[in-house]
Amino acid sequence: MFKNFDVIVVGAGHAGCEAACAAANLGSSVLLITQNLNAIAHLSCNPAMGGVAKGQIVREIDALGGYSGIITDQNTLQFRMLNLSKGPAMWSPRAQVDNIMFSISWRRVLEQIPNLSLWQDEVIGLKIDNKKVCGVRTKMGLEIEGKSVVLTNGTFLNGKIHIGETNFLGGRIGEEQSKGLSENLKEYSFEVKTLKTGTPMRVDGRSIDFSKLEEQKGDSEPKQFSFFVQREKALEQRSCFLAYTSLKVHDILREGFDKSPLFQGRIKGVGPRYCPSIEDKIERFSSKDRHQLFIEPESNYSSLFYVNGFSSSLPLSIQYEALKNIEGFENAIIQKPGYAIEYDYFPPTQLKDTLETKQLENLYFAGQINGTTGYEEAASQGLMAGINASLKVNEKPAFTLKRSESYIGVLIDDLITKGVDEPYRMFTSRAEYRILLRQDNADLRLTPLSFAIGLASKERMKRVERKKTSCNQLVSFIEKTSAEPKEVNSLFEEKETPQINQKTKISQLLLRPQINLKDLADNVPSLNDNIQSIPKDIKEEIIEGAEIIIKYQSYIDKEQEIADKLSKYENLIIKDDFDYQALKSLSFEAREKLTKIRPKTIGQASRISGVSPSDISVLIIYISR
Length: 625
Known about the structure:
Blueprint: E1 5-10, H1 14-25, E2 30-34, E3 48-50, H2 54-64, H3 68-74, E4 76-82, E5 92-97, H4 99-112, E6 116-120, E7 123-129, E8 132-138, E9 143-151, E10 160-163, E11 166-169, H5 181-186, E12 193-199, E13 202-204, E14 214-216, E15 240-244, H6 247-254, H7 278-284, E16 292-297, E17 304-308, H8 316-324, E18 334-336, E19 339-345, E20 363-365, H9 375-393, H10 407-418, H11 442-453, H12 458-480, E21 482-483, H13 485-494, E22 504-505, H14 506-510, H15 517-523, H16 525-532, H17 539-570, H18 588-597, H19 602-606, H20 613-624
Parallel strand pairs: 1-2, 1-9, 2-6, 9-20
Antiparallel strand pairs: 3-5, 4-5, 7-8, 8-9, 10-11, 10-19, 12-19, 13-17, 13-18, 14-15, 15-16, 16-17, 21-22
Helix pairs in contact: 1-9, 2-9, 2-11, 6-8, 11-12, 12-17, 15-16
């Protein structure tokens, strides 16, 4: 019934889908096994993709040849570029998406890729021979052979759902937990721990009085995530809305604290610091009179709205009573309760930088099984795990990304060197080289690397080369060409910036914070002619990229210089069998941590908690000899 697959992917969430597609597109035979084929890439929590740092990750996935950006663009309900008032390192794309069609679109993609098969079943164990994974065992009694296995089980491993004093087993509400894998892996000395996450109730939009809420529209000129696949038609955007809790709402919620699984100790797992439940927020921030809530549409094919910021595990009666005291929700009808869920994860210090486990060869972990939170973080791990599983079975070199190359590189390096003790969420502040890792240049950074291993297509690579050439040409023109006072002084007067009295290089004028490239193009004919000659499909990208380069070149150069200097030691390789215990000049804690984690480079070693700068100096001296 089943052949021997190159790669078996377990779980069809965001990590599993990207892993399966990447491996199959690299030429491997792939089997994707999931408990429910009707819930592929389901948006379990908020119906959105992207956001601060997360949007950069989605663009990096797209640049590498993944599908999250393309499918997001196909199903966008609203698009916003966040943090535009800040520098370009902070600009972060975010899209509200159609939850129903998002899943359908992912299934269409999976079913159109050669070498990729789907199977609805539950994996309860692994086939292991001499510490090498060679297949899976399923609930239906099947033993399916595979040269490598990628586990992307999300919140399903021994998942337990909490609503007040009620609790029951499940991976998501309405879906069974996954049992057996955690127990199987413990037999091979894997460390297993528990985390917690949650989700708010879903409200019938027909019962919300939107006239009492603040409307939040999308961008007037919405962009998209994919560099390669363009939208076929103009985006028709839907509005989101803002609502607010009150002291009365907080008092009602406090009435349920004595039955809260969070406060009464029934929930043992640590929850996400940056996405706390509403009861956690009013307890931790007791001085605040209100909390902001984002009311977001779930789909064009449903009346459901997601109450972002109102996640809760309190008794349903308390949740409902509190909701009805929020202005605009007096007559609210809910269709799904809010709940918390505990699930198993495997501390990611047990992984190599390829996301292959150290204990068992040919076994890869990706997504929430590694202690992360968020669709975007999961999808990027799935992409990298799928790539490396395929490369390894085909006896090709591994594919990894540096911290100076991508947010994905930062994410994976953080996981394998620092580990997690709470659900990991990506932020721009986690990256040392933010000005290099912008959302606008993800294709320039990563598509050539992906093309080199055979994942990014020739067409995608040609587009990147065309973009790079066009951007360089525009920058060169701006640096060489001057503007006359009569061309720009009226603009400068309007923008309240000093006028000029002699010809001045356009690049110098563009350094003024009040002035942008489009403003100058509207007033300087030669610049406008040059911009109009740029191919239409990449024109907006070129304008944005060229302006960023001109305005921030000194910052970019400085950061690149720092990255280049640090790379000397960052990439200094440590042999896999290095005997840290024999190096007595290292601290006891450093020897212990380094022996356990076994970093691949000095750079990774320097980021391990408990390894001091003096320990790193000792390592550098010893290895350099």
